[in-house]
Amino acid sequence: VLIKEEPMISQELRQLRADMNRARISRKEGAKALHLSYSVFNRKLRGERPLLPEEARRLRAYIDREAEQG
Fold first, then answer.
1. pLDDT, tens digit, for every residue of 7-60?
2. Which of 14, 27, 29, 41 could form a disulfide with 36 if both were Cys (CB 3.0 to 4.6 A apart)?
3. What are the residues whose beta carbons fall under 8 Å from the beta carbon of 49, sequence distance 6 or more?
4. Helix ranges (DSSP H) in the chain
């Protein structure tokens, strides 16, 4: 049985974008970390396509790792 995940809400997207900026992670680097094209990743961050919870978890882990290396 496939479980359909709901897209993220805009507040969470704003927080992820802000955290990426603070960690100095480019959208190109974020796309690579999630194994997505730059175009698809950018659409997801703008809320034009859904960023699934699993993608958000992977992006958050990447941001946290990069911020620690700082």
1. 556 888 999 999 999 999 999 999 999 999 999 999 999 988 999 999 999 999
2. 41
3. 40, 43
4. 10-22, 27-33, 38-45, 53-69
Q: Which residue has the tokens 């946290």?
A: 64
- Please name the residues in contact with 70: beta carbons below 8 A apart, sequence gap of 6 or more: 23
**How far apart (Å, rounded) are the C-alpha atoms in residues 45 and 67?**
19
Give the predicted TM-score (pTM) of the model: 0.82
Contact 13, 60 (CB under 8 A): no
